[in-house]
Amino acid sequence: MSDERRYRLAIWIVIASETLLFAGLFALYASYRAEYGHAFSEGVRDDLQWIGGTNTLVLLTSSFAIAWAVHAMRAGRARTARRCLELVIVLGLAFLALKLVEWGVHVHDGVVPGVAYSGPDHGPGTSLFFTLYFAMTGLHALHVVAGLALVTWVRVSQRPLALELVALYWHFVDAIWVFLWPMFYLMSSS
Amino acid sequence: MTGRTLIVTYAALVALALTSWLTASLGAGTGVALAFAAAKALAIALVFMELARAHAADRAIAAIAVFFVALLCAGALADVAFR
Fold it and tell me: In a 3-state reduction of DSSP, which class is residue A120?
């Protein structure tokens, strides 16, 4: 088995492990949503829709940018690849900035995780919804931070194989958000 | 993947995102929103992550991970449904 094959296998095992980390939280969400449908539907309405939607477009664009960086690197266009990676970093930072704005608005309104919750009351399950919201979007944001560190390292080191592996990780982070978006911003119907 | 394939996939992802945003604002159910999410994730996996032409072992790892997520969510939902 070549080194490249070994590294590719390793990154897929990492991605599968990370998927299972989120799986537990997805299962919790499914369970609580089934039990507290009204509170979860109303909770979705309390989230800032424009930030959720904008962040989705931001991450999808960043995924395209890093895919284009891989495409350019394979074609020997290292300069284009570097520009694309810089765009990924800018978009990743924009995603985090918008997330911080949203969390700040929530905290200001008393929408915090756990027993300290003092936001709108939609009945049993309301604070559970927002606890899951902070846990899942927070865990995802940590993955974005890790991804940004890796993208920055690849931009500096300019190793083609490392770029391909980091791109896979970045796409995974994007794919997780693709599911968090409807769960916390779109599914306002029971 | 060719540059054209990447551009077409990106355009499709944006179109799917905007459509799911629109349908949700019109009151579409959770199934519709999750179906759009699954379609986007599939496009990302097959094209951007190149799973469509990846080594069989990589595809098997990805498929098993997705299967376990589905199994765990189905188990959690069954627990509530048959309680």
Answer: coil
The shortest C-alpha distance from B14 to chain A (Å) reads 7
Name every residue in A having a CB less than 8 A away from some CB of B: 5, 8-9, 12-13, 15-16, 19-20, 22-24, 26-28, 30-31, 34-35, 53, 56-57, 60-61, 63-64, 67-68, 71, 167-168, 171-172, 174-175, 178-179, 181-182, 185-190
Residues B43, B64: one domain? Answer: no
Q: What is the reported pTM?
A: 0.95
Do B71 and B41 lie in a common domain? no
Predicted confidence pLDDT, tens digits, chain B (83 residues): 799 999 999 999 999 999 999 999 998 889 999 999 999 999 999 999 999 999 999 999 999 999 999 999 999 999 998 98
Is B60 in the same domain as B82? yes
CA–CA gap between residue A7 and residue A148 (Å, rounded): 20
Instruction: Give the domain range for residue B61.
Output: 55-83
